[in-house]
Specification:
Layout: H1 6-11, H2 14-45, H3 48-65, H4 69-75, H5 78-103, H6 107-133, H7 141-170, H8 172-190, H9 212-225, H10 227-243, H11 246-257, H12 262-290, H13 292-312, H14 316-344, H15 350-361, H16 365-379, H17 381-399
Length: about 425
Amino acid sequence: MSAGSPAASLWQSRDFKRYWAGQSLSVLGDAFAVVATPLLVLGATGSVVSMGLVTAMAMGGNLFAGFFSGVLVDRVNLRKLMIACDCARGALWGGVALLFWLAGPQIWSIYAAAAIAACVGNTFQVACITALVRLVERDQIIEANGRLQASYALMSVAGPALSGLVCARVGPVAAIAINAVSFGLSALSIATLRFRDPAPHADHDVPVRRGVLRDLSTGLRFIWRHPQLRAIIALVAATNLVVAARVDLLVFHIKHDLRQTDASVGQVFSLVSIGAIVGAIVTPRLRRRWGFAACFLGGGATVGVASAAVGVLTTPVTVALAAMVAVFADTIRSINAQSLRQECTPPHLLGRVTASWWLLTSSLAPAGAALMTALITRLGTAQVFLLGGAWLVLLAFVGVFTPIRERRPAAPLTQA
């Protein structure tokens, strides 16, 4: 690795390393919640449909935030906004834990916290995408995303296993409280960062400040005018129709069909996360060697095949291995899509474009989460996983006939 390479220069960036460490700790807390929240709902209600409703509430909050998060990110102080979002999420989930401890199971609080925290979390994630391009150079984006995703996945190996142990010994509420604390650590790390101001832009057709409605439409119009981004959004939205409830389905499969313990659920999720680590590490190399199309479409098809296998396998180890392959491929697909969006979008539009992206790709997710969990009660786990996997393979095949098939991404656009 040469001293002047993008990967080498990232090690010399103090701000990126602080950002990387803070967000990794936050993801460790999120990994606790990924296991604890479904277990908390399942323990309180005994219903997979209730699990799906919580996920649908979160997806709905995420979808609602898409109408304003991009405008907010592009207009206000980025550091202050991210700190405020972390503090709000910490207070929400800390409040849920406190309420359960003092008053017993209060399922309504989980519904409310899931929706509001998802709304705030959407704003934070849009800000994170924008923050990255103010911390690193353009030729470092794919390396930075790969490094972030690798550490996130590493935290997701330890998190579920620890969460499973915590849930088994002291209950899921304690794991939710740990997640709340992690948001405070993230806020502290962000307070130390120095973001570059976005470069002056020549896009006088659509100024940054020209009314909220105009700002909302700016991101949508930019995506529509970029052929690859437009095609990717359509495929990702259709994908989210069946993958929105994947965590709920996997937890239910392990607990109900395979009759495993809470600790076993955490161990399976830890094994699954290894796929994300490997996927994040190899993504930059695969992108350079194979190009965008092979990584994105090939990853989507592999997710479909592996997801179908999860439903028909009958031991925790084989289920974990199949899910690991699915997460490996999905990580490659996701990093490529995110990096392409960052590379092709002018910095002063990135918040609005990212929010519009998530608004469109999440449009079917709430209905998908409710639908897939409801179908399990009618068709059974194996059939639902098989249907979902077949749908994902079909979408990858359709993508071959769209602008996504180009080996290299389109040149960056400078006009909205």
